[in-house]
Amino acid sequence: MLDSVKVLTPREIVSELDKFIIGQEQAKRMVAIAMRNRWRRQQLDPELRDEVAPKNIIMIGPTGVGKTEIARRLSKLSGSPFFKVEASKFTEVGYVGRDVESMVRDLMEIGVNMVKQEEMAKVRVRAEGLAEERLLDLLLPGSGSTNLPENPSPSDYGVYGTTSGSSSTVSASAPSNSGGDSTRDKMRRLLRDGKLDDRVVEVEVTAQSPQVEIMAMPGMEDMEMQFRDMFSKVFPSRKKRRSMRVSEAREYLIQEQCDKLIDMDKVTDMAKERVEQSGVIFLDEIDKIVSRGEGAKGVDVSREGVQRDLLPIVEGCSVNTKYGMVKSDHILFIAAGAFHMAKPSDLAPELQGRFPLRVELESLGKDEFLRILTEPKNALTRQYHALLATEDVHIEFRHDALEEIAAFAERINQETENIGARRLYTIMEKILTDLSFEAPERPGEVVTIDRDYVRFRISDVMEDRDLGRYIL
Hints:
globular, disordered N terminus
């Protein structure tokens, strides 16, 4: 069982998504069910578990309505390995572009790093103890140490601390016990109290090996990865001494001890299981690999080639990675696209069958824009308020100002290209450009943004619609 994967109910997932994404209830419910099914499948008997295939999803909707934002928030909510990739990456070079199997390899890398961080968290307390002993060895003098005062302070140490405004460097020489346990214990107390954080010690660190650049042909990224691993073994890592403050050395030594304490073979096995059983790949801009009708040629051939290469990955196959073979049979694929120039039915029939669930996201209007400006935890109004507060300039948004911004965003989207909520970024920046520029010169001011303020700032665009096409 994947006990470490976060277990959220569909309602809890939707509730978390509601904090950042306005509307799109159907899409949020569908992805919440798909994520919950990851956990449900793990509760089944092994015989039936292998037969339950993931229900891959295609999200359809114009740009700026929340498709990618749903993916970003899911990656933070889920304890599963999650990788987002644009389908257009697979059409940039040559006929087929980047090897489509690379997304499974990238997902495996994410899984390994995720499990490694979890394992390091488990051994961190032990690692902190070992790192503390190493630091004490570095801080204690090689010979001739004297007993410390009864109530020592850093200035009492001479070579241990800073005296008369000068600092000294303690070398990583062999530890000495001449001061006895009492000396070490007093030093340990000072170290834990943070009174030695500004001391400088010399720590033996691993020097980076020479970087070898390898130009791999399209579709041969795996060979490039293998060459890099081979060269890293040909050029073994070297050690060098580096001077650093005690506070910095502590973190470095803790990291080093964590690396020694964890079992990378166990990490790899756990990551592989997690990727295969609960991994999620978000395939964005999938409409960019749809060909433009019959008699395809040129770039359309490339798009059809990408679709053909995607078929076995989505259906389930074994992909070679540097951690071994990884099966994609139970990886959940969530695809998204605007489908302005094409329709989902223009995808290859075989690929359509591998994405059985479809959900259409709705276009955003004035009401949704107003909610986007006020409700989410990361609302634009809160972001600008926090940014200008760093200059001691405080801005207050009146409700009528936000209504004006929302209505103007809806109108511009109707008259020009509909870019959804991204239009709000452009309008807000247009309104606050002068204030942002002058903020360092206006500390302590309180600026109220009302409807008249908004209209004044965008008056030139409102009067000249042709200009608005370029500015907004």
